[in-house]
Design brief:
Length: 177
């Protein structure tokens, strides 16, 4: 007799559920570490609501394109000073920001008074829409992975149930009843 047949069905389901949960946590953790648009969106909203204005110096601006997505990315590398402490920051910006400011220009940024290292441009709203689109897309991908995983496990459970029913039927017929 196979050893897996001796495991109670509730334990088997518990193991299966634990495995599914572990895979979901692993996928979500990889997503969170690799790319975290939800955190960026939260930080941006917090800075917009509670930020204090100061002037920043644009040290460098970069334009890059993604061959996979076909999207253009614009980045500002800037510094600003709060209470005689200098902070450096990199931030994705909209195309209009990128084309409006050149290296060496000053522009307004907002920073959090409780943590001046966190800053953003006050009118970077085009990027906010891009971030929301990315969040929705990433959540859709995670949902697709989850549905595929549940479908795979559902098929395995149905196959296991049919196998158990076949074993029971075989035992019923071999006993002569």
């Amino acid at each position: 007799m196979n050893e897996t047949q001796n495991i109670p069905q509730w334990k088997e389901r518990l193991y299966l559920f634990s495995g599914i949960l572990l895979i979901i946590i692993l996928v979500f953790t990889i997503f969170w570490i690799h790319y975290n648009p939800i955190r960026d969106y939260w930080v941006q909203q917090t800075v917009m609501n509670r930020g204090i204005q100061t002037q920043a110096l644009l040290n460098r601006s970069e334009h890059s394109s993604s061959s996979k997505s076909g999207l253009d990315y614009y980045t500002f590398h800037y510094t600003y000073t709060v209470e005689e402490q200098s902070y450096s920051h990199n931030r994705y910006v909209t195309h209009s920001h990128f084309s409006s400011y050149k290296e060496g220009n000053e522009f307004t940024v907002l920073y959090l008074p409780e943590n001046p290292e966190i800053s953003d441009l006050p009118d970077n709203y085009g990027y906010e829409n891009d971030m929301m689109s990315m969040i929705v897309l990433d959540l859709f991908v995670l949902l697709f992975i989850l549905i595929a995983l549940i479908r795979f496990i559902w098929k395995k459970l149905k196959k296991r149930k049919r196998k158990d029913e076949d074993i029971l039927d075989a035992g019923f017929y071999s006993s002569g009843q």
